[in-house]
Amino acid sequence: MVDTFAxxxxxxxxxxxxLDHPPANTLSSxxxxxxxxxxxxxxxxxxxxxxxxxxxxRFFVAGADIKEFVSAFGQQEKALQMAEAGQALCDEIEAxxxxxxxxxxxxxxxxxxxxxxxxxxxxASSNAxxxxxxxxxxxxxxxxxxxxxxxxxxxxxxxxxxxxxxxxSADEALRLxxxxxVTEPEELLPTAKAVAQSFVDGKSMTSxxxxxxxxxQGGNVHLQKGLELERTRFAELFLTEDAKEGVQAFIEKxxxxxKHS
Length: 261
Fold this sequence. Notes:
By secondary structure, the protein is α/β, with parallel strands linked by helices. It contains eleven helices and nine strands. Helix 5 (about 145-150) crosses helix 6 and helix 9 (about 205-220) runs antiparallel to helix 10. This is Enoyl-CoA hydratase.
C-alpha cells in the first residue's frame, strides 16, 4: 500500500488509517491522491471489513493545503480540478461498502470536516473542534461541505455555520448530529475500534454492504427511489449463501457461520 502521507495498520478485520502529513495533516493534492489509492485498495481487500481514519499528532485535518491555492488564481480550470479531486475522495469514502468511521482526534476544519462528513460514522475527542471557515478566505467549502452538512443538519443550520465560520466544540457538534459520539482523548481509538467491531461482528458483509448502500444513496433520492433500491437489494440477498445460512441458524438456534458470499 502507498503510505506516503498516511500509515495503514490492521487489527483483525479493521483497517486504521493514520493521516501523517505534518504539521497539521493538510489535504494537499498529493495527500488526497494518496488517500484515494488507500481507500480503493481497502475496498478490494477481502480481509478488511471496516475502516477507521484518524490523524497523527494534534490535528485530525486542518483543512486543504492553502499554499496550493496560490497557483490557481486566475486559472478557473485548475481550481475546478482541485475541487473535483477533493469531492472525488469524499464521494469514494461515502460510497464504500464497508463502514468508514472518522475518529476525530483534534481540529477538523475546512476540508478536514468535509472528509469526516464523507464517512459513515463520526466520533470526536472532547478536545476536537469542527468548522468550515472557508468564507474568511473569500472562498467556500468545496469538498462537499455545502451539500453534506445541510443533509446531516438542515439547510438553515448549515448556512448559519458556514456563513458565520463558527467553530464547534465536540459537544456542540454532537447536539447538532454532526458527530455521533464524544470521548476523552485516550478513549477515542478504543471506542472507534469497538464501534467498528459492533458494525461487522456476527454480520454478513453481503448484507452490511447493501445496507450501507441503501442508507447512503437513499438519503439523496426521492423516497420511492430509495424504497425501490431497498427492495431490490433485499431480494438480491435471497441469492446468497449467507442469507440462507443466517435464516437456517436462526431456526436452529445457533450462531451463523457467514462466508460473506
